[in-house]
Design goal:
The chain is an alpha/beta fold and 192 residues long. It has four helices and seven strands. A three-stranded parallel beta sheet has the order 3-4-7, with no helix packed on it. Helix 3 links the parallel strand 3 and strand 4. The chain is globular and about 65 Å long. The two termini are 34 Å apart.
Length: 192
């Protein structure tokens, strides 16, 4: 990645061009109106099947160059450190799916990451090669459709029975546990 221009401000200089001075006790941070607010935990993007499909269209060397430009720290990369991922399908999946398509499986015996092993898991692993400390937060676009009325992915509502709510909680837990087995740590889950 080529950086065209840095613009920075500090106590001594405002809106200055050039690389900001850090080190020796100095940190780069943003202070709107001179006040310090919360610390930024990172910047990132989203992992999804169509993104991996687009990456896969490139030659291998171009794929690696792009992954380095996105995730590598330092001069060569954007240093993306905080990324979102779907739990089941999202609007950038190849088609709609959940991680448990078995109606009435309240114990999540048929929960499976098999679909994610085709695109999401390899995509995340390749990013982790450049950014080992990558943090992930995950959110579903839909619960499994057998828990919804009407039973469709992109519309409808969760049927809030005790069985469904317990199974949906277990669905999230299994997601975290199964990704951990893949050596991919999920830092946060955002229930949609």
């Amino acid at each position: 990645m080529k950086i065209k221009k840095w613009v920075y401000s500090n106590e001594d200089r405002q809106w200055s061009e050039g690389k900001p001075e850090t080190g020796a006790g100095r940190q780069a941070f943003v202070r709107p109106n001179g006040q310090r607010h919360q610390k930024m935990n990172g910047f990132g993007g989203c992992f999804n099947e169509q993104g991996y499909g687009a990456l896969d269209c490139l030659e291998q060397a171009e794929q690696e160059k792009l992954l380095e430009e996105l995730f590598a720290p330092g001069e060569n990369g954007c240093n993306l450190t905080l990324c979102r991922m779907p739990i089941g399908a999202n609007d950038y999946s190849f088609d709609w799916y959940s991680l448990n398509e078995t109606p009435g499986d309240y114990e999540m015996k048929h929960f499976s990451l098999e679909r994610d092993r085709k695109a999401l898991i390899p995509y995340i692993r390749r990013a982790q090669a450049y950014q080992p400390g990558l943090k992930l937060f995950a959110s579903p676009w839909s619960p499994p459709v057998w828990m919804k009325n009407p039973p469709v992915y992109n519309w409808g509502k969760l049927i809030k029975t005790e069985e469904n709510l317990g199974a949906y909680a277990l669905y999230f837990r299994r997601f975290i546990e199964e990704y951990e087995k893949e050596n991919i740590h999920i830092d946060q889950v955002h229930v949609q």
